[in-house]
C-alpha cells in the first residue's frame, strides 16, 4: 500500500492502483448499485479530458509537455487496457464527482509516469492539470452526451438492418392474402406483406425520432464549470475544447447556447431516452404480433413459422416456443423501466444543478446497448428465417368476416347478406360461393381485393 493525503486526511491506496485517494474513498463509500459506472461514460470523460488538454495547451494554460503526456494517457485508457481502474458504483455523488476524480487520478498517474514520476506523487496533478478548466458539473453530462451519440451509431446500424429485413419479408409475402384483425376479431382482408411493411415503417419513424433527439445531444456544456458561467476559464476555452473533440471523434458537437441552462436541465437526455422507449414500445408490439400470428402450430393462428432456436419445453417433446420474441419482450420492458428512472432523474434537478446524472447516464447507456442487441437478434435469428403458411392464410382470408365488406360495392349489401347466410348454412366460403355462382369474373374479384387494400407495400 502507498499512503496519500487530501483535505480530509491520509488514506492507504493499493500500490499498483492507478487511481488515488479520492477514488479509494469513493470505493469505500458507495456500493448500493453493486455495479460500476458503464465504461462508455468513462470513455466519454476521457475523450473530453483529451480535448481539454489540447485546448489548454493551445491557449497557453498547460505546458506542451504535460498536454502531450495527458493525451497519451487518454489514448492508453481508451485502448481498454485499464478498464479495471474505474470501479466506482453507479450510485455515487450526484453530479458524478467520484467518477470524474477517478478519471482525473488515473490519467494523472499514467501521464506522470511518462514524465518519470511515480504513482501518487502528482507529477501531473489530477485537479490542476487533468481537470484544468473543468468541473464535474459539465464534464459528466457532456460525457453522457458523447457516449450516447457514439452508441447511437451502433443502434442506427442494427435498426437499419432490422428495417431492411422486415421490408424484404414484406416483398416476399406481398401476394399472400390473409385476414386483418381488429380487437382480435376478423376484419377486412390484407396481405401478409402489408403487415410486415407496416412494422418496417414504424421502425423507420422510430429512427427519425432518435435522429431528431440526437441533434440536441450534440450541444455540450463542457467548459461551463460549476454552474455554466465558465468561471476561471477564458472565453475561447469552450470553442477550443469542442473543436479538439470534433477533430478527434469526427462528430459535430457544438458549444451550448446557454451554459447555465444546460448545466441545470437534463431535458435533452430525457427526450432522447423517451425516443429509445418509444422504439422499445414498437419493438414490443411487433414481437407480440409475431408471437400471435405464429401461435399454434395446430391450435393457434399459425399464419407464419418462426425459426426454431431451442427446444421449448423440458417436459413436452417437440414443443418450440417463440423464444427470441419473448427475450425481446423482456428487454423492451427493461428499457421502459430505464426510461422511467431517467425521467424521474431529469425531473429531480434543483437550482443550478441536477444531482442525478449518474443514474440518468447509466440507464441511457444500458437502454442503448439493450436495444442494439435486441435489433440484431431479431434481425438475424428471427425475422430472417420467417416463412409463411400460405394455405393457412388463404383459408382465414376466405372465411374472414370482413370479406363481405369488400364485396358490398360490387354486389350490393342485400345480395352479400344472402351470400353470408348461405355461407353459414353450407360451410362454404364467400369466395367459393362467388366463384360457384359466377357472380363476377376471377380477375374482377382479384382486382376488387387489390383495390380495397391499396398499395401492396
Supply database-style keywords.
two-stranded antiparallel ribbon; mainly alpha; 7% strand; Ribonucleotide Reductase Protein R1, domain 1; Fumarase C, Chain A, domain 2; Fumarase C, Chain B, domain 1; 457 residues; 17 helices; 3 domains
Q: In terms of topology, how is this protein built?
A:
Layout: E1 2-6, E2 9-13, H1 21-29, H2 39-58, H3 64-78, H4 97-114, H5 126-130, H6 136-172, E3 177-182, E4 185-191, H7 192-217, E5 219-220, H8 237-249, E6 254-255, H9 259-264, H10 267-293, E7 304-305, H11 323-346, H12 357-381, E8 387-388, H13 390-399, H14 403-411, H15 413-426, H16 430-436, H17 442-453
Parallel strand pairs: 5-6
Antiparallel strand pairs: 1-2, 3-4, 7-8
Helix pairs in contact: 1-4, 2-3, 2-4, 2-6, 2-8, 3-4, 4-6, 6-7, 6-12, 7-10, 10-11, 10-12, 11-12, 14-15
Tally of domains:
3
Q: Bin the helical content.
A: 55-70%
The assigned CATH architecture of the largest domain is Up-down Bundle
Derived from helix and strand composition plus strand pairing, the structural class reads mainly alpha
* Overall 3D form: elongated
Q: What is the overall number of helices?
A: 17
CATH C-level category of the largest domain: Mainly Alpha
Order of helices and strands: EEHHHHHHEEHEHEHHEHHEHHHHH
- Overall mean confidence score, pLDDT: 93
CATH superfamily of the largest domain: Fumarase/aspartase (Central domain)
| Biggest sheet descriptor | 2 strands, antiparallel
Could you tell me the radius of gyration in angstroms? 30 Å
Strand line-up across the major sheet: 1-2
Low-pLDDT residue spans: none
Work out the strand percent: 5-15%
Through-space gap between termini: 68 Å
Number of strands: 8
Provide the CATH topology of the largest domain: Fumarase C, Chain A, domain 2
Amino acid at each position: 500500500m502507498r499512503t496519500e493525503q487530501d483535505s480530509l486526511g491520509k488514506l492507504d491506496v493499493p500500490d499498483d492502483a492507478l487511481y488515488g485517494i479520492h477514488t479509494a474513498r469513493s470505493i469505500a463509500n458507495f456500493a448500493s448499485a453493486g455495479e460500476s459506472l458503464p465504461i462508455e461514460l468513462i470513455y466519454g470523460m476521457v475523450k473530453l479530458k483529451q480535448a481539454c488538454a489540447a485546448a489548454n495547451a493551445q491557449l497557453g494554460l498547460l505546458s506542451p509537455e504535460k498536454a502531450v503526456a495527458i493525451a497519451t494517457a487518454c489514448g492508453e485508457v481508451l485502448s481498454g487496457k485499464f478498464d479495471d481502474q474505474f470501479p466506482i458504483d453507479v450510485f455515487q455523488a450526484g453530479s458524478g464527482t467520484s467518477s470524474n476524480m477517478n478519471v482525473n487520478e488515473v490519467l494523472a498517474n499514467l501521464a506522470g509516469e511518462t514524465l518519470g514520476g511515480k504513482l501518487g506523487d502528482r507529477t501531473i496533478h489530477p485537479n490542476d492539470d487533468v481537470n484544468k478548466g473543468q468541473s464535474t458539473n459539465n464534464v459528466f453530462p457532456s460525457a453522457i452526451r458523447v457516449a450516447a451519440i457514439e452508441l447511437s451509431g451502433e443502434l442506427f446500424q442494427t435498426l437499419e438492418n432490422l428495417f431492411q429485413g422486415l421490408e424484404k419479408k414484406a416483398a416476399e409475402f406481398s401476394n399472400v392474402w390473409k385476414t386483418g384483425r381488429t380487437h382480435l376479431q376478423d376484419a377486412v382482408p390484407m396481405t401478409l406483406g402489408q403487415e410486415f411493411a407496416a412494422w418496417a415503417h414504424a421502425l423507420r419513424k422510430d429512427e427519425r425520432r432518435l435522429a431528431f433527439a440526437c441533434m440536441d445531444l450534440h450541444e455540450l456544456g463542457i467548459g461551463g464549470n460549476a454552474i455554466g458561467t465558465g468561471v476561471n476559464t477564458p472565453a475561447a476555452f469552450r470553442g477550443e475544447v469542442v473543436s479538439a473533440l470534433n477533430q478527434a471523434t469526427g462528430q459535430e458537437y457544438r458549444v451550448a447556447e446557454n451554459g447555465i441552462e444546460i448545466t441545470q436541465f437534463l431535458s435533452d437526455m430525457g427526450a432522447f431516452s423517451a425516443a429509445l422507449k418509444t422504439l422499445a414500445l414498437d419493438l414490443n408490439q411487433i414481437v407480440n404480433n409475431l408471437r400471435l400470428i405464429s401461435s399454434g402450430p395446430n391450435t393457434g393462428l399459425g399464419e407464419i413459422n418462426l425459426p426454431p432456436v431451442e427446444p421449448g419445453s423440458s417436459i413436452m417433446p417437440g414443443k418450440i416456443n417463440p423464444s427470441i420474441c419473448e427475450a425481446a419482450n423482456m428487454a423492451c420492458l427493461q428499457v421502459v423501466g430505464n426510461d422511467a428512472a431517467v425521467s424521474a432523474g431529469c425531473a429531480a434537478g434543483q437550482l443550478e444543478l441536477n444531482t442525478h446524472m449518474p443514474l440518468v447516464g447509466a440507464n441511457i447507456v444500458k437502454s442503448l446497448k439493450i436495444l442494439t442487441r435486441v435489433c440484431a437478434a431479431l434481425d438475424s435469428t428471427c425475422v430472417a428465417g420467417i416463412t409463411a403458411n400460405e394455405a393457412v392464410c388463404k383459408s382465414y382470408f376466405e372465411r374472414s368476416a370482413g370479406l363481405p365488406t369488400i364485396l358490398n360495392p360490387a354486389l350490393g349489401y342485400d345480395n352479400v347478406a344472402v351470400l353470408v347466410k348461405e355461407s353459414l348454412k353450407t360451410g362454404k366460403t364467400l369466395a367459393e360461393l362467388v366463384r360457384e355462382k359466377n357472380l363476377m369474373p376471377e380477375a374482377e374479384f382479384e382486382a376488387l381485393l387489390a383495390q380495397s387494400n391499396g398499395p401492396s407495400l
